[in-house]
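Page 42, continued from yesterday. The earlier attempt failed because a stray header line got pasted into the input along with the sequence. Redoing it now with the clean sequence only.
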Amino acid sequence: MTYVLGLTGSIAMGKSTTAALFAAEGIPVWDADATVHRLYDRAGDAVAPLGAAFPAAVIDGAVSRAILNDIVADDPSALGLIESIVHPLVARHRTAFLEGAENDIVVLDVPLLFESGVDDLCDGVAVVSTTDEEQRRRVLARPGMDEAKLATLLSRQMPDAEKRTRADWVIETTTLEHAARQVRDIIAEIRKKMADA
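This time it went through. Structure tokens are written below.
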């Protein structure tokens, strides 16, 4: 029996860092964003179908996320077509990861976990969070980010407060040490639950 823990959080909440903390504890992590990057890279499974739908989006044999973003900005309806191509490919990779799981716990690191319904595949969900002020500071420190882009990104994501209410655990990422301690506590709690089951 493998416990599937969903890990999610809004932009700049510290999700990638927290996923790395689980990995450092020996917990296998499936990363949705990294999977999409591989699908878009040269010889990736998404290159041919996206290239057929949006020829301008493929450059040097790889899908350009920047060009796809521009296409969606010009024509928001294109997002549905992109998702209809990419989501089944991502799901296939995720299923292969879960079917190959040999650990007692695995993590599904998915930015839009609730929005995409992937939480239905999970035995529990941890939401990574921080204060609004810290989130804004982290986002605006990124190259090319501004208030307008932040507002657009947040509009596409479930509000942090709602994610918190739907989570089994909330991991506060105010400091790395605090986040690491919470990760260890969650792993211990899951293992205790499994032992008691």
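Notes: The radius of gyration is 18 Å.
Reminder to self: strip header lines before submitting.
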